[in-house]
Amino acid sequence: EVQLVESGGGLVQPGGSLTLSCAASGFTFSYADMNWVRQAPGKALEWVAVISGAGTSTSYADSIKGRFRISRDNAKNMLYLQMNSLEPDDTAMYYCSKGSSRGQGTQVTVSS
């Protein structure tokens, strides 16, 4: 059974930084492309970033390109999202995902 547990969210001021983590279990993590997605209140789910199983290839949504960085540690079955220069529009519930599976999410709120 795929299990994904996100952590690291919180309240941060505009311009600040946060790093989200996702602990994965129940599947061969190093074989799986992993994504971060987010959902702001009243809005549709938005794809944020993807990383290949080996961690050698990444891709980002235009809205966060240059500010966020996705990474992984296959030895620890961990996925990360480093977020810099945060903006109020980044406020959302953030989820890590494998295919159609998602965790419970971690809330990121950007506000002064």
Would you write up a description of this structure?
With 112 residues, this protein is mainly beta. 0% of the residues lie in helices and 52% in strands. It has no helices and 11 strands. The protein has strands spanning 3-7, 10-12, 18-25, 34-39, 45-51, 58-60, 68-73, 78-83, 92-98, 101-102, 106-110. The strands form 2 sheets. Strands 2, 4, 5, 6, 9, 10 and 11 form a 7-stranded mixed sheet that branches. It is globular. The termini are far apart. The model has no long low-confidence stretch (mean pLDDT 97).
Summarize the structure.
The protein contains no helices and eleven strands. It has 112 residues and is mainly β.
The end-to-end span amounts to 40 Å
What is the helix/strand order? EEEEEEEEEEE
Could you say which overall geometry the principal axes of the C-alpha atoms support? globular
Give the strand content: over 45%
Helix content: under 10%
Q: What class do helices, strands and sheet pairing give?
A: mainly beta
Question: What is the number of E strands?
Answer: 11
Number of helices: 0
In angstroms, what is the radius of gyration?
13 Å
Q: Could you describe the largest sheet, including whether it forms a barrel?
A: 7 strands, mixed
The overall pLDDT average reads: 97
Low-confidence segments, given as residue ranges, are none
Oligomeric nature of the chains: single chain
Descriptive keywords:
seven-stranded mixed β-sheet; globular; mainly beta; 112 residues
